[in-house]
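Subject: for your reference before the review

Hello V.,

The reviewers asked for a structural picture of the protein, and I figured it would be easier to keep everything in one thread rather than splitting it across files. Below is the amino acid sequence we used in the manuscript, unchanged from the supplementary table.
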Amino acid sequence: MKTTANTTANESKNLYVSFRWKNNRREFLGEQLFQELIARALNEDCMIINTRIENGEEVDLPADEWTLVDGGGNVILEGENEMVKNTGCLDFDGNYNKWYTTTAESMDEQELEMVYKAYLDGEYMSEDLKDYICEQMGVLRCKGIKVLPTELMVYTQRGTETVDFDGQQGEFSEDEWKDELEEQGFEPEAVKEIIDKLEMLEVIA
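And here is what came back from the structure prediction:
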């Protein structure tokens, strides 16, 4: 068995991810902009106050006087401009209840690992974020496989990886192929996809 690589640079893209601190534990909420996170908060227990009553009539507040309040009436965010940003934070109660959106490039190690786990669990995220998170974790994801007479051409976020099986039908077990592919840097789902192709081609012993 032999693998060779033809890599290309992974372009950096502007990606946004949201997290929540709850009871001193952090969880990944998904790939979204801050205004989308606010919309999620509005579906729970928050509201935006952008009007007031003057002389018995409802009038619009200036944009800088808008407020986002929680169910107890506590002001969480002030100003319309703060509500339409791509990143931001809704601090309800520090690490006991805090929601925030950041750029993928700004994620710390724990956040990267959380998003990578979500990727492996099959949670929805854009192709760009899948590419980015795998690149940051130092693994290769499979974006497609082309079957050639003596090799597989595996398309990854870096370019192509070639898995050569010429004359090796039945020479190596599934575990041996798995070890080789993992050593090459493929993530678990990519390994499974490649193994499935090799089994279909009756390469695996």
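For the response letter, the relevant points are probably these. Helices lie at 34-42, 80-83, 109-120, 127-137, 174-184, 188-200. The longest helix spans residues 188-200.

Happy to draft the paragraph if you're swamped.

O.
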